């Protein structure tokens, strides 16, 4: 029982930190400039951005990009790893090769939330580090049915270029083994 309470507290703490990240990141601009931007918002026209990149998740080796931070007492007996929680800081690249140009990082957590089939609860920030999107982010919170061919997850916000974003991300596994995954992402973000 004490282990379950500790696991729940850890998941709550990690989730809270993940949700606070966009709020902290969005305060990089002068608050007066943000207020001016917000005042003009009523006249702004929504923009649509379509993004394509690859997510590289590695759980082993010298420098893993995802690590397990918690698991339930039943996780080891579950075919879906129910109750396991991982934190990640994964590179985002233009192409599927790990040596492809870096365009950002995916930072957040995923937890195995399905008992009958593998279903991950994903809370992540896609933090862009290149070109016009540098220092902008998109926040995704939703279910990733990792073994399905295509998975749709909602965009719940963003910062910088993607301030007030909404939309969706479609994930498709490009490569998968027991220690790493390369996932293709197609993102449609509506923002101002």
Features:
192 residues, AOC barrel-like, eight-stranded antiparallel beta barrel, alpha+beta, 2 helices
* CATH fold title: AOC barrel-like
Principal-axes shape call: globular
Query: Tally the helices: what do you get?
Result: 2
Portion in strands? over 45%
Average pLDDT over all residues: 89
Succession of helices and strands: HHEEEEEEEEE
Structural class: alpha+beta
As residue ranges, the low-confidence spans are 19-27
Work out the helicity level.
Answer: 10-25%
Strand order of the largest sheet: 1-3-4-5-6-7-8-9
What separation lies between the terminal Cα atoms? 47 Å
Q: Tell me the Rg in angstroms.
A: 17 Å
Strand segment count: 9
CATH class identity: Mainly Beta
The CATH architecture category equals: Beta Barrel
Largest sheet entry? 8 strands, antiparallel, barrel
Number of domains: 1
What does this structure look like?
Helices cover about 20% and strands about 45% of the residues. Strand 7 (about 150-160) and strand 8 (about 165-175) form a beta hairpin. The chain has two helices and nine strands; from the N terminus they run ααβββββββββ. Residues about 20-25 have low confidence and may be disordered. The longest helix is centred in the first third of the chain and has 25 residues, at about 1-25. It has an eight-stranded antiparallel β-barrel with strand order 1-3-4-5-6-7-8-9. With about 190 residues, the chain is of the alpha+beta class. Belongs to the plant dirigent protein family. It is found in: Secreted, Extracellular space, Apoplast. One of its GO terms (cellular component) is apoplast. Keywords: Apoplast, Secreted, Signal.
